[in-house]
Amino acid sequence: MAFTTLRVQVNEQTLERLEQAAAAQGRDLEQAARLLLEAAATLLPAAGRCVIVAGPALEALETILGGGALLSGADLQQKVERLAGISFEHVRLQFTPGQLEEIERRAERQGKTVESLVAMMVPRIHEQFFNLIDTRG
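Below the sequence we write its predicted structure tokens.
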């Protein structure tokens, strides 16, 4: 494997963070910076784009989505899908953000969680399923 020298300029704050990382790892600044850059490069997508979310924005996303810390892109996708719809067997009902807000308002008015309101509706949907098929056919 060939190695290439790369020169970068960083501001004082970034330099300080790199020096702290190096000290914590027991490495010199060059080694620590190289390892951090190599690790960061593995996270870059081969094609497409990369969105970095950190600090208060990340905390807000995790609060909205629930289920603890976001661990990966796949974890984010799963949590968004869970938030944005309801699945019955292999059928998924998708909702717009406005519809989700309306479901939340109705659950709150009834003193229930969204999950408990949906759970109450499943037997009614199941009960009416065959009636709906008969009227369409």
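The chain has three domains: 12-43, 51-83, 85-137.
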